[in-house]
Design goal:
The structure is a single chain. The chain is mainly beta. It has five domains: 97 residues, Immunoglobulin-like (Sandwich), CATH 2.60.40; 85 residues, Immunoglobulin-like (Sandwich), CATH 2.60.40.10; 90 residues, Sandwich (Immunoglobulin-like), CATH 2.60.40.10; 88 residues, Immunoglobulin-like (Sandwich), CATH 2.60.40; 86 residues, no CATH class. It has five helices and 41 strands. It starts with a helix and ends with a strand.
């Protein structure tokens, strides 16, 4: 009994001594690494906490309490983490906004805590941009922000970005998307960057920020031309439609054509305006290249060239024959058929006419045969494509017996020879006339001198070269050219015979004292008593003499 009393006294004394040692009670402590915690609405949040207690006694229990001493959570001690007293809230909301403290007690001490508390705030993600509308080529910066700074426990979080509900891939080195912390930079921005954006924290992608519509203005692009109907036959009505992607929308569509005579898209003819262009009664002349140009407030662009392929039935179908007409029996003949068609002709059919009926002779682009009574007749071909068919004009092949053909050939040869002779005669006559005209122009002009008297008796005068030169009044005159002679001595002599009168020009002399020369032409000749031969320089004169009234 005594020994037990002694042990109790020693224990009380030891406990009193330990309590009097400085720092022993300071071993009981609660620590908050953060006194301000910002939690993301709907996401889990952790209020970090550690605690320590003296080796005297053992842990009995603890928990988290609000300022009004309402317990929020009971703490469960873990031997793995004996000093961890952190509080995890799986899904925070506005009701969790408060001040929190951790209390614990041991077997040797009652409830203990820190004089400070942890304040929990709740925030949402808010997406903002330096501009909500941009023109293609500019830059746009997006920021994913909160109403309170996220605590350091969230600093390891990575922001992700979504456009139209789909997460954007992490930017590559060559990408125009650049991410830094909670910012996304689009530089340069393009039309593909337009859309509805949102952001989230990686691991909590279901918790999205507010959305932001980013609008990008750009010139028309992705222009196309659609022709209706796609299979176009001559005579149809075709409608060309232009479509494009543009922001703001296109306000002017212009249609152009590039004809075969032009060489490039810059050399074109404007057809009209509007989102559609219609051509009625299409012909082969419309088989050109077309394009449309779209314009909005940002710029303009044009479509690729579209070629209208107009289909038509065979045209200008004709037959060419190696020989035709009346041919001797046995003569080989080849007939060929040609036509203009789109699509190309796929069948040529040959017909011969027997009375009013046409019989199929053969098929193919050309046929060959020897002329006989059975093969003679009227031939024509029919060209057929996928659209329709057309017939050529007829070619007549007639068989002639060889005897008749020989006679006919002789007649043809004689006709050719006679025609050639006639042409040669005509050419000879024409040549002679041309020669005579040239000789006539080469001789001096001859003019008659007519001397008339009252009784119309002709008197002939001979003007000789000697007489002309004797009448010259000076050596200068003597040496003057014969073409410049203006005065001449005229020796009037009558000729009684008709022979003399025929060798000279007629001179008609009228009675009277005055002579009126109307025509003067001098003929130089050499005269002898026997004959008078004309000189090439002979000129005739005609003198008219009028009687003078008293």
């Amino acid at each position: 009994m005594f020994s037990r009393s002694v042990n109790v006294q020693y224990t009380v004394l030891l406990f009193t001594i330990i309590q009097s040692i400085p720092g022993v009670w300071c071993a009981y402590k609660v620590t908050y690494p953060l006194t301000e915690v910002c939690g993301l609405r709907g996401a889990p949040v952790v209020l970090p906490c550690t605690f320590t207690f003296s080796w005297i006694g053992h842990y009995r229990g603890g928990g988290w309490y609000l300022a009004n001493n309402n317990r929020v959570s009971r703490h469960r001690y873990s031997s793995t983490y004996p000093n961890d007293c952190s509080l995890r809230i799986d899904k925070v909301s506005e009701r969790h906004t408060a001040r929190y403290r951790f209390w614990f007690y041991t077997s040797s001490r009652d409830w203990m805590t820190n004089k400070y508390a942890v304040t929990l705030s709740i925030t949402d993600l808010h997406l903002t941009a330096d501009r909500s509308t941009a023109t293609e080529g500019e830059s746009v910066a997006l920021t994913c922000g909160t109403t309170c700074p996220l605590s350091s426990s969230l600093s390891t979080f990575v922001f992700v970005w979504l456009r139209n509900g789909r997460q954007l891939p992490l930017p590559a080195a060559t990408s125009t998307h650049k991410v830094k912390d909670n910012r996304l930079l689009l530089e340069p921005v393009s039309s593909e960057d337009a859309g509805r954006y949102s952001c989230a924290v990686k691991g909590q992608e279901n918790i999205l920020s507010s959305t932001l519509d980013l609008k990008i203005k750009y010139a028309p692009k992705n222009l196309t031309v659609l022709a209706t109907p796609s299979r176009l036959v001559e005579g149809d009505v075709v409608t060309l439609s232009c479509s494009s992607d543009a922001n703001p929308p296109v306000h002017t569509y212009t249609w152009h054509t590039i004809t075969s005579a032009l060489t490039s898209g810059n050399d074109s003819v404007q057809l009209g305006t509007g989102v559609t262009y219609t051509i009625s009664n299409v012909t082969t002349d419309h088989s050109d290249r077309y394009y449309c140009e779209a314009k909005n407030d940002i710029g303009r662009n044009r479509t690729d060239v579209v070629h209208l392929n107009v289909l038509y039935f065979p045209k200008n179908t004709s037959v060419s024959a190696s020989m035709s007409g009346a041919l001797p029996e046995g003569t080989p003949v080849t007939l060929s058929c040609s036509s203009d068609a789109n699509p190309a002709v796929h069948t040529y059919t040959w017909y011969t006419r027997s009375g009013n009926e046409s019989l199929v002779r053969a098929k193919g682009h050309s046929i060959s045969f020897n002329v006989t009574s059975d093969t003679s007749g009227l031939y024509h071909c029919q060209a057929t494509n996928d659209i329709s068919s057309s017939n050529s004009t007829t070619v007549e092949i007639t068989v002639v017996e060889r005897e008749k053909f020989s006679v006919l050939r002789v007649e043809v040869i004689l006709t050719i020879i006679l025609t050639a002779i006639g042409l040669l005669i005509m050419l000879g006559v024409v040549w002679l006339r041309i020669r005579q005209k040239r000789q006539h122009h080469a001789e001096p002009e001859a003019k008659d001198v007519i001397v008339e008297d009252d009784d119309d008796n002709a008197v002939y005068a001979d003007i000789s070269t000697v007489a002309m030169r004797a009448a010259l009044k000076s050596p200068e005159d003597y040496n003057a050219p014969e073409d410049d002679v203006q005065y001449a001595s005229i020796d009037f002599s009558a000729y009684n015979t008709a022979k003399d009168a025929s060798e000279h020009s007629d001179i008609r002399q009228h009675r009277g004292e005055e002579l009126e020369v109307e025509y003067a032409s001098v003929k130089f000749s050499q005269t002898t008593t026997a004959t008078r031969s004309e000189d090439s320089s002979a000129i005739y004169s005609t003198v008219v003499k009028h009687s003078q009234k008293t």
